[in-house]
């Protein structure tokens, strides 16, 4: 399989918090992988996330995000964690339909002249419930359930070889 695009979920996939839309300003940085919001909510980036994103970039893969969150919140959290620069496309929506977001990502890439077929895509999400509709409405995307199909982020690299 020739994978060109890796699409990530955010909450509980890239970090341990379940809903970044709850985060309130001011948000402070505790260390590179940890932040805390005005009301004491904490978020920690999972191990190997940064090194895996770095490696995917160095292999010239396209990296995108499909997350059920308010767009401005997703952008803010990615910026403050210094992760935004890894993502070519971020689609955050206030609804849970990942298949809609993935189609949006693919259409945005087409606008940029990048024609990725569904089978060129890996979608990593901690909720398997999304996968059925992704297969039905997007196509033969390689769906990977985080923490079930793989137990660490670096295992994503093995899937694209
Ligand atoms: Mg999630």
UniProtKB/TrEMBL annotation:
Stretches of the chain forming a coiled coil according to its record: none
Superkingdom of origin: Archaea
GO terms of molecular function: acid phosphatase activity
Record NCBIfam families: HAD-SF-IIIC (TIGR01681), MDP-1 (TIGR01685)
Protein name: Phosphatase
Pfam family, one: Acid_PPase
């Amino acid at each position: 399989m020739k994978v060109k695009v890796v699409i990530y979920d955010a909450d509980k996939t890239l970090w341990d918090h379940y809903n970044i839309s709850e985060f309130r300003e001011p948000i402070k940085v505790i260390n590179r992988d940890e932040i805390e919001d005005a009301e004491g909510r904490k978020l920690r980036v999972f191990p190997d996330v940064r090194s895996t994103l770095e490696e995917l970039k160095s292999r010239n893969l396209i990296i995108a995000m499909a997350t059920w969150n308010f767009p401005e919140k997703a952008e803010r959290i990615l910026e403050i964690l210094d992760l935004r620069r890894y993502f070519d496309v971020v689609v955050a929506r206030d609804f849970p339909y990942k298949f809609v977001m993935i189609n949006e990502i693919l259409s945005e890439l087409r606008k940029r002249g990048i024609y990725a077929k569904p089978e060129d895509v890996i979608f990593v999400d901690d909720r398997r419930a999304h996968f059925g509709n992704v297969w039905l409405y997007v196509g033969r995307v390689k769906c990977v359930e985080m923490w079930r199909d793989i137990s660490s982020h670096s295992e994503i690299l093995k899937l694209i070889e």
